[in-house]
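4.2 Preliminary Data

To establish feasibility before requesting continued support, the project team ran the inverse folding procedure on a target of 277 residues. The structure was first converted into the token representation described in Section 3, and no sequence information of any kind was made available to the design step. The complete token record follows.
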């Protein structure tokens, strides 16, 4: 089969994916070890039998709905390429807003920073890549996620980032100038959980009780024991949770509470500055 034919999306894929052609290019690139530009240059090149059968096996997985990132085993985030696996969420572009906001919070200097529910380590590693002076620690409840994040630290040449196992603040001591988290925040009844890539991701990383606000509430409350005076707390949250998270932070005594939009213009990140006690 010619490359150009292999990259013509079957109808079933167009029904399933927002980017069927790109999906096929990524899968074929993975099989033959070439970048996407190669396909544009050599559309008439014939694939070998071995290449074609390996490619078809990956396409079959995609047609069952499996996310491209899990099939490839990697996902780009910020300037990094991270290993991903079904033990964690796939890092999303919107989460880069959390990284940008976090980078804006503190002046130059050496600070202690914690990422709660770090998963692949995406946020912790992106922050460490931009601020080599920060002492960044990422925590996750799942031992497999901690091991994955540690591998990502080595992969990115950022093994100064510490990854620790435990529930939220459990592995932490002392106080932090910045605490960030992209916790589970989807309402257990949200239909979005039955659609698309999200079906293959771990529920424990997605869903929280209390209409999605249980973990955010727990973290915001407990963070008052772990933030320095004037330390910052930042959350990613659902597009419709900005008002609730602002109210929560304000009631707990955080100052300068505000929400930032994601790339689609939806409320996505809320931050507050701990006033101290
Ligand atoms: N934004 C993700 C989604 O809607 C959820 C991420 C999360 O729960 N932390 O699929």
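Position-by-position output of the design step:
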């Amino acid at each position: 089969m010619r490359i150009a034919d292999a990259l013509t999306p079957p109808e079933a894929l167009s029904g399933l994916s927002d980017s069927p052609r790109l999906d096929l290019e990524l899968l074929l690139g993975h099989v033959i070890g070439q970048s996407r530009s190669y396909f544009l240059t050599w559309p008439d090149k014939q694939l070998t039998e071995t290449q074609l059968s390996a490619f078809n096996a990956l396409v079959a997985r995609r047609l069952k709905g499996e996310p491209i990132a899990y099939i490839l085993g990697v996902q780009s985030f910020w300037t990094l390429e991270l290993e991903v696996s079904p033990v964690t969420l796939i890092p999303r572009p919107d989460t880069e807003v959390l990284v940008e906001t976090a980078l804006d919070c503190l002046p130059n200097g050496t600070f202690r920073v914690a990422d709660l529910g770090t998963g692949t380590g995406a946020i912790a590693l992106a922050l460490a890549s931009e601020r080599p002076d920060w002492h960044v620690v990422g925590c996750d409840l799942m031992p497999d996620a901690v091991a994955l994040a540690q591998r990502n630290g080595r992969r990115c040449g950022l093994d100064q980032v510490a990854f620790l196992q435990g529930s939220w603040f459990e592995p932490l001591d002392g106080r932090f100038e910045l605490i960030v988290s992209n916790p589970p925040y989807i309402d257990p009844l949200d239909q979005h959980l039955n659609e698309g890539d999200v079906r293959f991701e771990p529920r424990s990383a997605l869903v929280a009780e209390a209409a999605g606000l249980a973990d955010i509430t727990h973290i915001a409350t407990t963070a008052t024991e772990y933030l320095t005076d004037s330390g910052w707390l930042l959350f990613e949250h659902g597009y419709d949770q900005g008002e609730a998270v602002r109210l929560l932070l304000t009631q707990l005594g955080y100052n300068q509470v505000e929400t930032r939009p994601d790339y689609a213009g939806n409320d996505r990140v809320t931050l507050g500055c701990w006033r101290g006690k």
